[in-house]
Design a protein that fits this description.
The protein is mainly β. Among the domains are: about 110 residues, Sandwich (Immunoglobulin-like), CATH 2.60.40.1120; about 150 residues, Beta Complex (Ferric Hydroxamate Uptake Protein, Chain A, domain 1), CATH 2.170.130.
Length: about 1000
């Protein structure tokens, strides 16, 4: 901020006075200059507070008309500025109407700004290598800010995005703390499951999202890919998340942007007085959806009828639930016992920030801990440190930003998810503990589910992401910038299974105990020099950006398996094991280089053309296939600025038509796939360990390519109080990187190559924002998004003759299942029936699995409302999905066996003529019924409507009036996640759908935020 200088301004006054008097030039002009100079000497300090009518506004810009003096409000909305009595102050803030106020000799000027939705179109959007006004972007970019993130009591960055972005489908894979999420941006492009992940960029640095854990250790408790590396990003440290979707937005990232790009910008310091912020909340999580399982009397009725159907009059010795071994009057709700606990959550954050117009800083620390709903003392903890320093030189030519994020998390869990045990255990199974407090094995007649508490899984992960951006303005319109980044991830993972987890009747001791460990280290560095130039040409503005990328990532991993311990107390010491084997010991290096560019021309702020391109080089391909070119062209027409449209449609406040087309690619196949590679065979020859080939040499395959096109229209009505976006997209992915099947005589099942299969993702995206009320003291706004996706396999050469024939169908989605077609119950035999497609009289094999079921979502989206009344703020988000999913029948036990069931099976076949419900019970000796049930679980009866509407997030906050406390600002809030679910789904949860995986938890938290 520029301040008054006595020496400088008195000299200016004297100079003006002498020139006017001695030279006698324009007495009026001299008089005006004299008055102006005198007014400078009469400057005084102006103070005040800027609010939105209720709450203070931080970051409001206050300037003096015609002068360079300027400042911004602090966190409490307060400001101080030097001004003359006749000066005019200009108050401006994104999203609010600019106000102009005359000082008129006052020393205090307090202002209340009014919201102006039109200004939201002027918000700068992060497009990766450049930023652009929201109104002038030519690409498809979805965005959420810290304002939305802070309303959610979650620990994974993907959780904050659910239901808030069109075209972005995110599902939570488990309710176990520290678990992961799956994300698809505009559908599935690759035939390979692992080839559909987007690119994550944190403050300009690519973040490795691949799991470095070993699924042999984590699979029992953390499903799918195991440990989620995105837990290494702390959501509360994030300022903005932008998702790049179309070719115009992603092509500048070349091969890495084929599946979309997630840009994460962390928080930075602001130019204001030093302030301290403390935020703390505590919460509780519960499983909200459970199955309606049978009680003991219903269960025993099923069991007796099953043996009767099998012709068994005397119950066998192993039927402990019926033969009198177990108490037939006992009832235990195993869902309550094993997954009915309360997961307690605690989170505390503290930060300090401040600075001036040249240097700003921010330091934040967070500690989070969450327990589980399982019995036992298990928890997930996270400690995060974030810092940022920004500096601009006095001449505003040189600037530097340095930021860092360090996250240490510890996941201390049991080794196996107890959810399936909670469902299938007999309701009259024995007590968990004996009177003396030890595990009850009931004389060896059952396997106590709490044995899994003895099996411990531990994962410690340390993630460091450091980034620096240096820029220098060579000329006013020419800037040189370099991004330097480094990341380091280290994982120490172990799983121990002591002999105490086994039934004592087996007679096992510590020699049967096992211990597995996995240590992994992944490091990456990134250097990106860039040169940008801007110039006004021909009534418009041209922007040119060129740059290059140098990236390297190394990964080291070693997994060990140990068994045969002298004592269980030494189980975590592999040196004490009598047998030790190496599961894997790998070291890989990935190198990536590229040159990229962008040319943007904006003519009269109405017609915009944007061209981006990139030439990529990847070490994952053979020497002659390592480089490829990618690019895109985007255009936009701001038709609302045309006079003939503005005059014809006066209620249209904003209108833009945009379109794009381009090509991106993918190299997500892992390292060294083109080389002849070998692995240890596990054997030896003459005392020497031997090797065996595991991959054939093929240097001829290259990049997957994704051709993307989109057209969209954005319109705002009534001063943008109603704003809508409609987009139509179509993406075609080809040159699929998959394993081509080989004859068994080659010794290999497949060879890595490009398959000329084509996958199309197309669809519609709709976004709506409305300002329903904006008058004080009540405000109400609504945002909604809807995506209607369609995934289709267009081409697949010789599909019927390949090993993929039972998996894919041309013209159908990649997310299909070829299953048996269930036709009902045979009224005579009481056994399930299925369509015999090949008419051979039997139901078996791929020939009869011809019914196609698509589990690709038909549509998904979310509706969010934000209401403010005086000091109260209330926000809630409903997420909805229309889909078919895997239901309870897919993994249910055979009705009649020693396993509990959903009460729906009480509607069963009992006599000839019955055709409804489930087939007749069997205890397992009816081979025809058992075989039919296995087919039933692989039929279309195992798929049902999994649509749902979920109250995903709710936030209620109250800001204590400033008059109550002059020293601090206080905000009290209540937040909820996954609060209500409306669904007809036949199973535990319609989102992750698995019968053996803990569903997402309902979380309710209360907290307080203090700012000093």
């Amino acid at each position: 901020m520029k301040t008054f200088s006595f020496s400088r301004d008195v000299k200016a006054f004297c100079f003006l006075f002498l020139m006017g008097t001695v030279l006698s030039l324009s007495p009026i002009q001299a008089k005006n200059k004299l008055r102006k100079s005198l007014s400078i000497n009469q400057q005084q300090q102006i103070q005040g507070t800027v609010t939105d009518g209720i709450n203070p506004l931080a970051g409001v810009s206050i300037s003096i008309k015609g002068k360079s003096n300027a400042t911004v409000t602090d966190y409490n909305g307060q400001y101080t500025l030097s001004a003359a009595p006749e000066d005019i102050l200009i108050f401006s803030y994104i999203g609010y109407k600019t106000q102009i106020v005359s000082v008129q000799g006052r020393t205090a000027v307090n202002i209340s700004l009014q919201e102006n939705e039109t200004k939201l179109q002027e918000v700068k959007i992060n497009a990766g290598y450049y930023s652009v006004k929201n109104s002038e972007r030519t690409g498809s970019i979805a965005r959420i800010t810290a304002k939305s993130i802070e309303k959610q009591p979650v620990t994974n960055v993907l959780a904050v995005m659910q239901g808030r972005m069109a075209g972005v489908n995110i599902t939570q894979t488990t309710g176990v703390p520290g678990g992961g999420f799956n994300i698809q941006i505009r559908g599935r492009n690759s035939l390979r499951t692992e080839g559909n992940d987007p690119l994550y960029i944190i403050d300009g640095l690519p973040f490795a999202s691949e799991n470095v854990g070993n699924t042999n250790l984590s699979a029992g408790i953390l499903p799918n890919a195991g440990i989620n590396p995105l837990n290494g990003i702390n959501p509360s440290d994030i300022e903005n998340i932008e998702v790049l979707k179309d070719a115009d937005a992603t092509a500048i990232y070349g091969s890495r942007g084929a599946n979309g790009v997630v840009l994460i910008t962390t928080k930075k310091g602001r130019s204001n007085k030093t302030e301290v912020t403390i935020n703390a909340y505590t919460g509780a999580g519960k499983v909200t959806r459970t199955l309606d399982l049978m009680h003991t009397d219903q269960y025993l009725e099923m069991r007796r009828e099953a043996f009767a159907n099998d012709g068994v009059a005397v119950y066998p010795s192993y039927a402990y639930d019926l033969n009198g071994t177990w108490n037939q009057n006992r009832y235990t709700d195993w869902q309550k016992e094993l997954i009915g606990g309360t997961a307690l959550t605690q989170n505390i954050e503290a930060g300090v920030s401040g600075g001036n117009s040249k240097t700003q800083f921010l330091i934040r620390a967070t500690h989070f801990r969450e327990t589980t709903v399982f019995p036992g003392d298990f928890s997930y903890g996270k400690t995060a440190l974030h810092f940022s320093i920004n500096h601009v030189s006095e001449n505003n030519k040189f600037s530097i930003n340095f930021s860092g994020n360090y996250v240490a998390d510890k996941n201390d869990l049991l080794g196996t998810d107890l959810t399936r045990q909670a469902i299938i255990l007999s309701p009259n199974a024995p007590e968990l503990y004996t009177p003396d407090g030890t595990l009850n094995w009931e004389n060896g007649t059952w396997s106590n589910p709490l044995r899994f508490l003895e099996q411990k899984y531990l994962a410690k992960t340390n993630t460091l992401v450091a980034n620096s951006v240096l820029s220098y303005k060579i000329l006013p319109n020419l800037e040189l910038k370099t991004t330097l980044g480094f990341s380091d991830t280290r994982l120490d993972e172990s799983k121990e299974a002591p002999s105490t987890m086994y039934n004592p009747s087996l007679g096992l001791d510590s020699s049967a105990s096992t211990y597995m460990s996995n240590y992994a280290k992944q490091q990456s560095w990134n250097i990106e020099p860039q040169l940008s130039w801007q110039k006004g040409i021909g009534g418009g503005t041209i922007n040119i950006l060129i740059g290059t990328t140098f990236q390297q990532r190394t990964k080291d991993q070693q997994a060990l398996y140990a068994t045969g311990f002298a004592s269980n107390s030494l189980i975590d010491n592999i040196a004490a094991a009598s047998s030790l084997s190496i599961l894997n010991n790998n070291s890989t290096t990935y190198r990536y280089n590229a040159i990229f560019g962008r040319i943007n021309y904006n003519w009269r702020q109405k017609y915009i053309l944007n061209a981006t391109g990139r030439r990529d080089g990847s070490s994952r391909f053979g020497p002659d296939k390592r480089f490829a070119n990618f690019g895109a062209l985007g255009a936009a027409w701001l038709f609302s600025k045309e006079n003939f449209i503005a005059n014809a449609v006066p209620f249209l406040s904003f209108g833009k038509l945009r379109a794009s087309y381009g090509i991106t690619g993918s190299d997500q196949i892992g390292d060294y796939q083109y080389l002849n590679t070998y692995n240890t065979s596990g054997g030896n020859y003459q005392g020497i360990a031997t090797l065996q080939p595991i991959r054939l040499y093929n240097p001829d395959f290259s990049w997957e390519t994704n051709k993307k096109k989109e057209i969209a229209i954005e319109m705002g009505f009534i001063n943008d109080r109603i704003f809508t976006t409609v987009a139509r997209y179509s993406n075609r992915s080809s040159n699929q990187l998959v394993g081509t099947p080989l004859p068994g005589t080659t010794g290999f099942t497949s060879v890595q190559s490009n398959l000329n299969a084509v996958v199309e993702n197309s669809g519609w995206e709709f976004e709506l924002r409305t300002v329903n009320f904006q008058n004080m003291p009540f405000k109400w706004s609504t945002t909604a998004n809807l995506t209607i996706p369609k995934n289709k396999l267009l081409e697949f050469p010789n599909l019927e003759g390949s090993t993929y024939a039972s998996q894919y169908v041309i013209g159908e989605s990649l997310d299909i299942r070829k299953v048996y077609h269930y036709t009902g119950i045979n009224p005579t035999t009481g056994i399930y029936q299925f369509e015999d497609y090949n008419k051979n009289g039997t139901i078996s094999g791929a020939a009869d699995r011809q019914k196609i079921v698509s589990i690709n979502p038909e549509f998904f989206g979310g509706i969010e409302n934000s209401l403010t009344y005086k000091n109260w703020q209330f926000d809630f988000l409903f997420q909805f999905v229309k889909q078919i999913g895997v239901n309870y029948n897919s993994a249910a036990p055979l009705p009649g066996t020693l396993s509990n069931q959903d009460t729906e099976i009480l509607n069963r076949w009992q006599e000839q003529g019955d055709t409804e419900g489930v087939q007749k019970y069997t205890a397992g000796s009816n081979g025809a019924a058992s075989a039919a049930f296995n087919n039933y679980r692989s039929s279309d009866a195992a798929y049902t409507d999994a649509s749902f509407i979920r109250l995903k997030n709710l936030s209620l906050a109250y800001t204590i009036p400033e008059s109550w406390s002059k020293s601090a600002r206080c905000r009290i809030y209540l937040q909820g996640q996954n609060l209500l679910t409306f669904t007809h789904f036949k199973g535990l949860d319609p989102e992750n759908q698995s019968l053996g995986i803990l569903p997402p938890l309902q979380v309710l938290a209360i907290g307080v935020q203090l700012t000093f």
